[in-house]
Recover the amino acids of this structure.
């Protein structure tokens, strides 16, 4: 009985969340901002798989985001102007990059892991910076088209929003499935105590590598969608500041919650956009907010919701 | 239960934030009045140079009379933080939500190219000023973008031709090793070649290098007449300081790619004393109305305007004039009024908008940084030493790689 009542409630909330996300572009200052929030929500969610669930502080996730964006962009500009193959290529290449970086860096943990991932990401950044012929270098990869998919005219911002929303909802569903599976539980176990997990008989490195690749996959998808949204790929998408941004979004939102990073992306991008219209010192205000988050409520926005609204049982 | 609560929490925050944002956003305005936007760097690395472009645009609108086509001219500005992705998003907001007719400025070449692409998509005008890339009037040119101010070809070619004629024909170059440095080097080399000079050597130096002594020593051993420093910002300051320390300036003249009064103010006049460079404009200009503009600016900000401020003022003024001539603010007739137009204002005397690649061209000024003892009033850091005609300073027609296309 209780179960069926709960699932009923769950269905109601889920469908209203979907409804709200459908209306979202009409509530933000402009449509493209809503799309940007979605892209970073997806990126932050994929990052949370690594940081929040597996406890690996990667500081090189811009690499997978940027590689996804560049691959999708290069496919569209130079190879074949069709969206789906380009996005597919983006996620494949970024997953392969995650396999490469992950394979070499998961042997280390803690600060060493962080530094190795940062070093790899900067390596990709400088490759793109120097390889002007392929990536456009400092000018970014300009003129990424948005070809239509059948009747879907992606040049319209609002259509593109729903196109991105489709992928984001799909990814969140898969993400939820992953973290609630035995695989996800194992990840959380090794986050809490690596040695004990190992002693039970789990191949810890394999789990860490797999979650790293899954995260790279979704980061690449976010990057590909970002290239479509912007009509170009900025070089900064590979830069360490992008990695920093996604760390901040995840922490402010609440790591290890999957929904928290989505809220973190929403809050940070929206606030930055609004505050920067009023004052040049927006960076200062964002910094204060971040410090407040780290000092005051470590669990992020999600923890406030839980505590203040007494939603947690 | 826990999961359900989480989802509910998400919903609540979602609603609150969305509600707040909906309240903050101003209601949509009627599309009728002419609306001008400045999109510039107000909090990033160029902010010290470009943030006041907003004030320059406001002044231009005020001086124009504030009214056009029987309605008040509207004005908005946005900070792109020197990030191309932000610039791109803000351009969309300005064109779609704010319904502006024109976006002015946008330093940073990647940002300029991205916004130019948005201008083409939205069929609205864009006047890049702070972004110097020649792609804006070369391979990436189109009907809706008018490049005001300068481009990298002009900086290199004007300074190069003048230096080869007046300072000497034996050169050494030190180049920042990335696309901007490479493009400048190519144009400097061409200018030198056209005057029959020789390049004794070139060093490619990684961005952010702090020790330039090996390159300076190599340059001194080559014994050139002119040392060309193709770098900017901190690299420019470091390389020049070290050249001074080695006593290179006693025998060799130094040319820089780009000069700003703010740059001299920041490091003091000693570092760049007696160095040369090309400049689109300097505040001692005698162009019509320039001194009135400078006096107004001095009164307001207690410092003279830099050339980007003047370029912004000019771009806004010429845009408004074109709308006035067209009698309508639609993009197509206004563009037709701008193409091939010749004008005289504070920034260009005369200025000409080339129809073949939408570059606003004017004679380029060559300036020399004054020595400390020569500086008689605050901020008077430069002296006009010559000029290069617009015809020589910009790409020849047919060689730009621009295919203008239709509307």
């Amino acid at each position: 009985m209780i179960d069926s009542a709960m699932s009923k409630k769950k269905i109601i909330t889920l469908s209203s969340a979907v409804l709200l996300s459908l209306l979202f572009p009409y509530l933000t200052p402009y449509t493209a901002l809503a799309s940007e929030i979605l892209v970073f929500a997806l990126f932050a969610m994929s990052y949370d798989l690594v940081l929040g669930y597996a406890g690996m502080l990667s500081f090189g996730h811009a690499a997978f985001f940027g590689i996804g964006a560049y691959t999708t962009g290069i496919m569209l500009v130079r190879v074949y102007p069709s969206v789906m193959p380009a996005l597919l290529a983006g996620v494949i290449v970024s997953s392969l990059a995650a396999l490469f970086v992950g394979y070499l860096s998961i042997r280390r943990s803690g600060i060493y892991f962080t530094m190795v991932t940062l070093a790899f990401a900067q390596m990709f950044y400088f490759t793109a910076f120097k390889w002007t012929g392929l990536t456009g270098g400092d000018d970014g990869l300009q003129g990424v088209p948005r070809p239509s998919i059948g009747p879907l005219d992606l040049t319209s911002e609002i259509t593109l929003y729903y196109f991105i929303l489709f992928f984001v909802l799909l990814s969140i569903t898969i993400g939820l499935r992953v973290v609630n599976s035995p695989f996800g539980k194992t990840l959380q176990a090794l986050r809490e105590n690596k040695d004990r997990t190992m002693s039970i008989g789990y191949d810890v490195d394999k789990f860490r590598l797999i979650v790293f690749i899954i995260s790279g996959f979704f980061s690449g998808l976010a990057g590909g969608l970002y290239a479509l949204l912007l009509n170009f790929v900025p070089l900064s998408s590979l830069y360490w500041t992008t990695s920093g941004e996604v760390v901040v979004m995840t922490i402010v939102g609440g790591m290890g919650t999957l929904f928290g990073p989505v809220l973190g992306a929403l809050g940070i991008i929206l606030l930055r956009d609004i505050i920067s219209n009023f004052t040049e010192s927006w960076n200062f205000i964002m910094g204060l907010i971040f410090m407040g988050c780290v000092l005051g409520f470590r669990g992020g926005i999600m923890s406030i919701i839980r505590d203040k609204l007494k939603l947690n049982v | 239960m826990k999961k359900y609560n989480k989802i509910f929490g998400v919903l609540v925050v979602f609603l609150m934030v969305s509600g707040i944002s909906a309240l903050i956003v101003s209601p949509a305005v009627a599309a009728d009045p002419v609306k001008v936007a400045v999109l510039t760097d107000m909090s990033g690395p160029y902010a010290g140079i470009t943030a006041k472009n907003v004030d320059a645009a406001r002044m231009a609108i005020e001086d124009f009379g504030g009214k056009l086509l029987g309605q008040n001219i509207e004005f908005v500005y946005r900070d792109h933080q020197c990030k191309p992705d932000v610039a791109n998003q803000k351009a969309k907001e300005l064109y779609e939500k704010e319904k502006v007719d024109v976006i002015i400025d946008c330093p940073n070449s990647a940002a300029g190219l991205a916004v130019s692409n948005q201008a083409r998509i939205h069929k609205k005008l864009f006047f890049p000023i702070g972004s110097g890339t020649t792609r804006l009037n070369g391979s990436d040119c189109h009907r809706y973008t008018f490049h005001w101010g300068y481009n990298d070809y002009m900086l290199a070619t004007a300074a190069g031709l003048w230096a080869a004629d007046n300072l000497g024909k034996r050169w050494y170059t030190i180049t920042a090793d990335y696309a901007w440095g490479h493009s400048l080097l190519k144009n400097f080399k061409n200018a030198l070649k056209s005057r029959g000079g020789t390049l004794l050597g070139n060093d490619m130096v990684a961005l952010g290098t702090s020790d330039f002594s090996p390159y300076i020593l190599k340059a001194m051993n080559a014994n050139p007449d002119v040392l060309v420093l193709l770098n900017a910002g901190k690299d420019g300051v470091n390389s020049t300081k070290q050249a001074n320390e080695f006593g290179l300036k006693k025998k060799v003249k130094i040319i820089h790619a780009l000069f700003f009064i703010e740059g001299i103010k920041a490091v003091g006049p000693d570092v760049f004393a007696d160095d040369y460079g090309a400049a689109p404009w300097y505040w001692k200009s005698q162009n019509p109305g320039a001194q009135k503009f400078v006096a107004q600016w001095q009164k307001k900000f207690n410092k003279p305007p830099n050339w980007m401020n003047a370029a912004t003022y000019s771009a806004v003024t010429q845009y408004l004039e074109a709308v006035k001539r067209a009698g309508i603010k639609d993009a197509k007739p206004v563009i037709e009024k701008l193409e091939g137009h010749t004008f005289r204002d504070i920034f260009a005397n005369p200025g000409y908008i080339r129809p073949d690649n939408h570059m606003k061209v004017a004679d380029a000024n060559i300036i020399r940084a004054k020595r400390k003892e020569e500086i008689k009033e605050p901020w008077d850091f430069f002296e006009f030493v010559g000029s290069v005609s617009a015809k020589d300073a910009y790409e020849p027609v047919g060689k730009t790689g621009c295919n203008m296309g239709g509307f």
Residues 25-30 of chain B have pLDDT under 50 and may be disordered.
